[in-house]
Design goal:
Layout (H helix, E strand, L loop, with lengths): L2 E4 L2 E4 L18 E4 L7 E4 L14 H13 L5 E8 L4 E8 L4 E6 L5 H13 L3 E6 L1 H4 L5 H7 L1 E3 L3 E8 L4 E10 L5 E8 L4 H4 L12 H13 L5 H9 L26 H12 L4 E2 L1 H14 L12 H17 L3 E4 L2 E4 L9 H14 L4
Parallel strand pairs: 7-8, 8-10
Antiparallel strand pairs: 1-2, 3-4, 5-6, 6-7, 9-10, 10-11, 11-12, 13-15, 14-15
Helix pairs in contact: 6-11, 8-9
Organism: Levilactobacillus tongjiangensis
InterPro entries: CoiA-like_N, CoiA_nuc
Protein name: Competence protein CoiA
């Protein structure tokens, strides 16, 4: 904490000396000034203090980063350190005074999804735009849904983004146009900015994604099934019950489309499951498509809602595209009450699929 209260006035830790009766502006409990030759000045609660506004331990990265961000974002509005928001019991690391205020949250330590969602919702309740910037710990990690789910948000010109602040270089790293290719891998571009005005005057370059390698994808599916990879056996079970093998999906399902993160093991696998399910019946309506679509998304490990973005619109587009593809290929016909199945997609009975069936059958005496 960089700001404390002294005799009813807010004071900055860098401008005061020890020995004064400092109190926390949020809970009004005593705080102690800490400083040293290698430590930037900050205030700390006394041991055992229960302050509702304490969020994360004040690492030196966090202390230093907040001051740097205050300078970096000054062009966007008058900056204030650690603005207290009593109505929602929160304290913004940096507050930018403007028509729509911006709260900068510099996150250096682990934090639960529930806490991120709660703090984000609190800012939205006040009409404040929350901007999460991640520290060194997150910058070094491999990108996963866990991070995207908590912190990714949309920025004009940059698409879906993650923002990272580097205390050592004072650079803003923007991982932009975050998306998921059809075979499930995440894709994005990365830009480094030295001036906040670049965030508005520039836009990130979108990286085109290559066409999926179907043979490699089939082989990977087969290998994963042989290893009994987590979650994939359930997908294979669902497809098998419609009379097919997962690795033998129709080639027409290949797509270069990308989706927002949230499609679990990827759009292609979702299209495979949906095709297996839809063509089990003679006809189906829009309500049934929506029901199966969400069930397929869950089956492949997907999520409809992140803290800051929604996957549902992309899922609806995927439904529309899949149906249009099979209509174009002459396997479905649009009717007034929905769709009529007029042909069956051709599934591939390849050697890999046969080997998987044989391996499971001999080992378990099962239906494989």
């Amino acid at each position: 904490m960089l700001i404390a209260e002294l005799e009813d006035q807010l004071v900055d830790a860098k401008n005061v000396e020890r020995g004064r009766p400092f109190v926390c502006p949020g809970c009004h409990l005593p705080v102690r000034l800490r400083r040293g030759s290698r430590v930037q000045p900050y205030f700390a609660h006394l041991p055992g203090a229960l302050c509702p506004l304490q969020n994360e331990a004040e690492s030196q990265q966090h202390v230093q980063g907040k001051r740097q961000l205050m300078t970096f974002f000054a062009a966007w509005g008058q900056p204030e350190l650690e603005r207290i928001l009593p109505k929602i019991q929160q304290r913004a690391d940096v507050w930018l005074v403007r028509k729509q205020p911006i709260a900068l949250e510099f996150q250096c330590s682990p934090i639960s999804r529930a806490e991120v969602a709660s703090r984000t919702a609190g800012y939205r309740q006040l009409g404040v735009y929350p901007m999460w910037l991640l520290g060194k710990r997150y910058a070094k990690q491999r990108l996963t849904w866990r991070t995207l789910d908590r912190f990714a948000s949309w920025l004009p010109g940059w698409g879906l983004c993650l923002l990272f602040w580097d205390v050592e270089t004072c650079l803003l790293r923007v991982d932009h146009h975050l998306c998921q290719v059809a075979t499930g891998q995440f894709s994005w571009g990365t830009s480094y900015l030295r001036d906040v005005t670049d965030l508005q005057s520039r836009s990130g370059v979108y990286l085109a994604t290559p066409r999926p390698n179907l043979l490699a994808f089939r082989r990977q599916l087969t290998a994963d099934l042989q290893r009994e990879s987590a979650g994939l056996r359930d997908v294979q079970e669902a497809v098998y019950l419609s009379g097919h093998h997962l690795a033998g999906f129709p080639e027409q399902l290949a797509t270069m489309a990308v989706t927002p993160p949230g499609f679990g093991k990827g759009l292609l696998l979702w299209r495979v499951v949906m095709t297996a399910w839809l063509f089990q019946t003679k006809q189906f309506d829009e309500q049934e498509v929506h029901r199966l679509s969400r069930a397929a998304l869950i089956l492949i490990g997907g999520q409809l809602q992140a803290v800051r973005f929604n996957v549902a619109p992309a899922l609806q587009r995927a439904e529309t595209t899949l149906l249009q593809d099979w209509v174009r290929l002459g396997k479905l016909e649009r009717r007034s009450q929905g769709w009529q199945v007029v042909g069956q997609p051709q599934w591939t009975a390849d050697l890999a699929a046969y080997l998987v069936r044989s391996a499971h059958g001999s080992r378990r005496g099962s239906k494989w």
